[in-house]
Amino acid sequence: MNPLADASPLPVTADDSLFSSDARTVTVWSDIGCPWATLALHTLHAAAERRGTELVVDHRVFPLELFNSQSTPKPIIDAEVVAIGAKVPALGWRLWTSPEYTYPVTTLSAMEAVQAAKDPAVGGLRASDQLDTALRHAFYGEGRCISLTAEILAVAAACPLVDEKALASAVERGEGRAAVYRDWAVARGPRVQGSPHLFTAAGVDVHNPGADFRWTADPQQGGFPDFRAYTADWADGVLDSVSLSAQDR
Questions:
Q1: Contacting residues for 133 by C-beta, under 8 A, at least 6 apart
Q2: Domains assigned to the chain
Q3: Nearest CA to 228 among 90, 87, 75, 88?
Q4: Which residue, among 197, 211, 210, 214, has the nearest Cα to 236 in the 3D structure?
Q5: Element of type H or E holding 229
Q6: 17-40 tens-digit pLDDT
Q7: Which pairing describes strands 25-30 and 56-61: parallel, antiparallel, or unpaired?
Q8: Can you say whether the dihedral through the CA atoms of 149, 150, 154, 160 is positive or negative?
Q9: Which pTM was predicted?
């Protein structure tokens, strides 16, 4: 997903505000409420599991609702969920079946929790990634309202790497909120093109990889995503880049 404003790519440089300098880490800019980002992360995790490769993801926030001054309209997400879920059934998605009044109005609180989980006291980077994955599944696969702190903590309780009590304390203190707004400041620059955008210290710089689609018309005017093809090959390239770069250190 892209914000309303256009962003043009520039050459990648070693900018710690844009991506992790750790050669083993894939930095992913995204919004939990973006189906395309969730597809990309699923593909990357599945490739790492298939290869037996340890994957380290640093989640950075591309907050669509801050860019657009509104929550992402449910009809747009529904259309993307149908298109993506039909093309990649392994995702296990389903249309929202919970009561309409329980539909998440914001994903900021969920993304704040993911940022807060990076604290070693909560679990660290891998815990943060595990929580992000679980929150996406809760939303797209289980129809849970991940806007609610209680629901976020319930999801966290099922994540072995996350210290639920430490996370609850961090959320109570507002940990993660400042990180979301710092990321938004960076994302408003020209380098991050949308959700998802992946970077590595080795030079990976790719926006919404593997997806060949177009909107038949303006999604706000009833258009549909024409998802023509999807390839997962890009994930092996990212993992190869990370592995080779880490070996060189």
A1: 41, 45
A2: 53-244 (3.40.30)
A3: 87
A4: 210
A5: strand 225-230
A6: 899 999 999 999 999 999 999 999
A7: parallel
A8: positive
A9: 0.91
Q: End-to-end distance of the chain based on CA atoms, in angstroms?
A: 34
Q: How far is CA 40 from CA 29, 34, 108, 148, 161, in A?
A: 11, 10, 20, 25, 22
User: How many Cβ atoms sit within 10 Å of the Cβ of residue 228?
Assistant: 11
SS3 call for 187: helix
Q: How far apart are CA 74 and CA 6, in angstroms?
A: 23
Strand partners, 199: 27, 205
Amino acid at 114: V
Length of the chain: 249
Q: What is the Cα–Cα distance from 91 to 84, expressed in whole angstroms?
A: 9
Q: Which residues contact 178 (CB under 8 A, 6 or more apart)?
A: none
For helices 35-51 and 74-87, angle between their N-to-C axes, nearest 10 degrees: 30
Q: pLDDT, tens digit, for every residue of 197-239? A: 999 999 999 999 999 999 999 888 888 999 999 999 999 999 9
CA distance 54 to 94: 29
92-120 in b/e form (b: 16+ CB < 10 A) is ebeebeeeeeeebeebbbbbbbbbbbbbe
